[in-house]
Specification:
It contains six helices and five strands, in the order αβββαββαααα. About 30% of the residues are buried. The radius of gyration is 15 Å and the shape is globular. Helix content is about 40%, strand content about 25%. It has about 160 residues and is an alpha/beta fold.
Length: about 160
């Protein structure tokens, strides 16, 4: 999800009326362990570079949902993979909760489970009306490894279709 956060932040820079800050943190395991990407996008000046209460949360692991699921606004959008155990998580009362086949889509439609983050980014794009899918795709093509552009483009479109 770190790459998806970077892509989202870079896509926001294509819109001069938007201000953006992107931060990330990795658990001690680094690769394969807990990680977090935060993107703050605003038409106003951004005075604090971290998310206090998220308007949108994408959690692709049970650990992430347990750790960050309560840090959302009452009207937040929460997107998780359909195979996750929601445990004690209570979806936001005034928001939206989407349990989607993110990993299955990456694996079965794209043939590469590693693209789950881009599938999630495609789903997320539905909730960002001020940010065009074209600008996200442009940032996507600038960031993904050479030779994976078509699979990542397909993953983004597959994610858009999930919502």
């Amino acid at each position: 999800m770190i790459l998806a956060g970077i892509i989202l932040a870079e896509a926001s820079t294509h819109h001069p009326e938007l201000n953006v800050v992107q931060t990330q943190s990795y658990g001690p395991e680094s690769r394969g362990g807990a990680s977090r990407a935060e993107v703050v996008i605003s038409q106003d000046n951004i005075d604090y570079p971290k998310v206090v209460k998220a308007d949108i949360l994408i959690a692709l692991t049970d650990e992430a949902l347990a750790k960050y699921g309560d840090d959302v606004e009452d009207d937040a959008v929460v997107i998780i993979d359909e195979n996750m155990n929601t445990g004690d998580f209570t979806p936001p009362q005034e928001g939206e909760f989407h349990s989607l086949p993110i990993f299955a889509t990456a694996r079965d439609e794209i043939g590469l489970e590693l693209t789950a983050n881009i599938v999630a980014l495609g789903a997320l794009s539905h909730f960002l009306p001020g940010l065009s899918s074209e600008s996200i795709k442009k940032a996507l093509m600038e960031r993904v490894p050479e030779g994976t552009e078509e699979k990542n483009k397909a993953a983004f479109e597959a994610g858009r279709k999930l919502i």
